[in-house]
Design brief:
- The protein has 683 residues and is α+β, with helices and mostly antiparallel strands.
- Among the domains are: 162 residues, no CATH class; 86 residues, Arc Repressor Mutant, subunit A, CATH 1.10.10; 81 residues, no CATH class; 58 residues, 2-Layer Sandwich (Alpha-Beta Plaits), CATH 3.30.70; 91 residues, no CATH class.
- It is built from 27 helices and 21 strands.
- The strands form seven sheets. It has a four-stranded mixed sheet. A four-stranded antiparallel sheet has the order 11-12-14-13, covered by helices on one side. A three-stranded antiparallel sheet has the order 5-7-6.
- Strand 11 and strand 12 form a beta hairpin.
- Helix 6 packs across helix 7.
- It is elongated and about 110 Å long.
- It starts with 5 loop residues before the first helix and ends in a 15-residue tail after the last strand.
């Protein structure tokens, strides 16, 4: 059914029942009759007892448009909705309820997360179990039905639903929240013992929400600009956490370091709570992702965390939409933990704005419903604080958990955000004037770029890509440098793109020295490049021609250096080996790799170099003199005169003392089964 208004529910009721209920409430129609029998009752009538009860039938056909007295159904419904949802009427009836009836009514509201109603049998069993009684819940339900506070829906498959119309639900929650606020309000003695301010009526949490969105940006920008490695447990290292927190607008202390308990059990590493919330939000919404290390680090199995492609879409959203996504993420996380968290949020949205309330008293008033619904998560102080903290990060609440008497205060902004997001309204204008972002910055002659925290994050993300961050405060400071220009060009920018971006968004004319410097930094970019490829070396011309013929047309040969030396596709190595072996050419196992030998590294021996490599291959790599007869010498990289040769014997004796020769490692397998059956390792 969804969350239904009283009007929609009354459309399901028989017209004669509407007529009798309207007459009872003072509708000026023809006199006579009383309300129909209580649904599910064995008696045919409850005359004199029934007041405004409605029986909505899910299987009702199209009803007559007028009753027997000629009253239009639409007019009857309009009158009943006005009378039954009138605030004064609802309050009067609510105040007159017994404690059992009030418990039963609130139980229906807190158990109905979707607005589709609660099975009467389940509800009555829960309430009777809580009250240690039999029949009191059914009697309370009938009283609420007669008072018009609930509607009983007859189901096609049998059974009944208790359903509170949307207008009644909102009004009852507001009345209940008012009662809780009066009992949980701070007393003078509480204020004295807690040594904390009573709060500021009408306080606004927009600034707090803005700081959260800014710090999410700071976190993403840090990951893009600074390689951030993860531990084996998938955590960001402490030093990286400190660097991130140093630029946050909301200060936070690092979590205590991991250690061991008295029993010797290790304490797992953890994040500070707000930073942890930001990290988990970014991971779970795919704003960041894990990538494997490249280069030498890949052998260690290192993993880094980096922003994903989804960040560009994220920074282009209006602030209200970004905040709504954070709220939606938190809402879904708690939906898996506690079945009534959404109803608790609805209740919190009804609390008085700006009034500090004792947290223990507020949740004490909710304890019965938490227990009745079979989830005790929010009965413990630690879980309650964990539930409320993200609402503080989003500016919904203000709290002071560290005080002797912890309190919560609903902010003006919190009342608005809960009301709009829980009802599914468009969040784009959620943050009002605070959500109006600037679209310009100032470029200084000293290469500094000054930007406001309210700069559109889409522009700030681009600025962060072409300049280096200096300071993140109320005023953001960046600096244009040769290194930042190089980083931007590596990300796909050209020098012209950088200048066009700066001219477009700078609020002052771009200083000439800045423009000339950027052109100078970018003019030589890309003129030199490294190309990684694989060299296929043939022993003689005949073999080379045969290999070319075998691999021709397969897209594996990328070019020729000499008639015997072919550049081939590294990724096709195993496939080429298979093709050549089937054709009768069996390559030597492994791949020879040119590398820098580190001091004390015995992995590569010059004896093996001399024994395994033929003269032509060493000539090609430039490791020996190209002159005839110099097959036993290599170039000495530490000699003062370029081209000085050193014998291999001297190289062996002096190898540990030098810091490195150009050498060739032998052999390095690349995942192919070698002759001895061992599987090699890819370089």
């Amino acid at each position: 059914m969804g969350s239904m208004t009283y009007e929609k529910l009354l459309e399901l009721a028989p017209i004669e029942q509407l007529s009798r209920a309207a007459e009872h409430l003072g509708y000026r129609g023809r006199p006579g009759g009383n309300l129909g029998a209580n649904p599910g009752s064995n008696s045919g009538s409850n005359a004199g007892d029934v007041k405004a009860g409605m029986d909505a039938r899910t299987d009702s056909k199209t009803d007559s448009k007028t009753d027997s007295r000629g009253n239009p159904k639409r007019e009857l419904i309009r009158y009943l909705v006005e009378r039954l949802t009138e605030p004064a009427y609802v309050e009067e009836v609510y105040r007159g309820l017994s404690s059992t009836e009030r418990l039963a009514l609130l139980m229906i509201i807190f158990a109905d997360a979707t607005g589709e109603g609660v099975l009467r049998e389940v509800h009555d069993a829960r309430v009777d179990e809580f009250l240690h009684s039999r029949g009191k819940a059914r009697a309370a339900g009938e009283a609420l039905w007669k008072a018009g506070l609930i509607v009983i829906v007859n189901l096609k498959r049998g059974g009944h639903l208790y359903l509170v119309p949307a207008e009644i639900r909102a009004r009852v929650l507001s009345l209940f929240a008012g009662e809780v606020a009066r009992s949980a309000a701070l007393k003078p003695s509480d204020l004295k013992s807690s040594s904390q301010p009573a709060g500021q009526p009408g306080s606004n949490g927009v600034a707090t929400a803005t700081r959260l969105l800014c710090d999410i940006f700071v976190f993403l920008a840090h990951l893009r600009n600074t390689p951030t490695k993860l531990t084996r447990e998938g955590m960001i290292y402490k030093r990286a956490q400190e660097a991130i927190l140093s630029n946050f607008m909301e200060p936070e202390v690092l979590a205590k370091p991991a250690g061991a308990t008295a029993a010797g059990k290790a304490i797992p590493m953890s994040y500070p709570e707000r930073l942890g919330f930001i990290i988990h939000f970014c991971f779970d919404t795919n704003l960041i992702e894990e990538v494997s290390a490249s280069g030498e680090d890949r052998w260690n199995g290192d993993t880094y965390v980096v922003p994903s492609a989804a960040v560009r879409e994220w920074v282009g959203l209006p602030p209200g939409v970004r905040l709504a996504r954070v709220f939606s993420y938190w809402n879904q996380e708690w939906d898996r933990v506690n079945p009534i968290h959404a109803q608790i949020l609805e209740f919190l949205s009804c609390l008085p704005v700006g009034l500090p309330l004792r947290i223990d008293k507020v949740f004490e008033a909710l304890d019965a419903f938490i227990r009745l619904l079979g989830n005790r998560t929010l009965r413990y102080e630690g879980n309650i604080h964990r539930f409320l903290r993200p609402l503080c990060y989003m500016g919904v609440l203000e709290t002071n958990f560290e005080a002797p008497v912890p309190v919560l205060t609903l902010t003006e902004f919190g009342s608005e955000i809960l009301g709009r997001l829980l009802s599914g309204c468009d969040p784009s204008g959620l943050m009002g004037e605070a959500g109006i972002e600037e679209d310009g910055f100032h470029v200084q002659p000293d290469f500094e770029v000054l930007a406001s925290r309210n700069l559109r994050q889409e522009i700030l993300w681009q600025l962060d890509e072409v300049a280096s961050s200096v300071k993140m405060d109320n005023m953001i400071v960046y600096r244009l440098t040769r290194e930042s220009a190089s980083r931007a060009m590596q990300a796909g920018w050209s020098g012209g793109d950088i200048l066009e971006f700066l001219r477009k968004h700078s609020r002052n004319p771009l200083p000439q020295n800045v423009e000339f410097s950027i052109k100078d930094w970018c003019k030589n970019y890309g003129k030199v490049r490294f190309i990684e490829t694989m060299l296929l070396r043939c022993e003689d011309d005949a073999t080379a021609e045969a290999v070319k013929a075998i691999l021709a047309g397969k897209g594996m040969i990328l070019g020729e250096i000499t008639p015997r030396d072919l550049m081939v596709d590294r990724n096709a190595y195993e496939r080429m080996v298979q093709i050549l072996e089937r054709s009768g050419y069996f390559p030597r196992p492994g791949v020879y790799r040119l590398e820098r030998v580190k001091p004390g590294n015995d992995a590569v021996s010059f004896d093996k170099l001399d024994a395994e490599l033929d003269r032509d291959l060493r000539d090609l790599l430039g490791l020996v003199s190209p002159g005839p007869g110099d097959t036993k010498r290599i170039y000495d990289p530490h000699a003062d005169a370029p081209g000085t040769l050193i014998s291999l014997d001297d190289a062996r004796r002096r190898k540990r003392g030098y810091g490195g020769f150009q050498s060739v490692s032998l052999p390095i397998e690349t995942g192919r089964q070698g002759r001895d059956g061992e599987k090699g390792r890819e370089p």
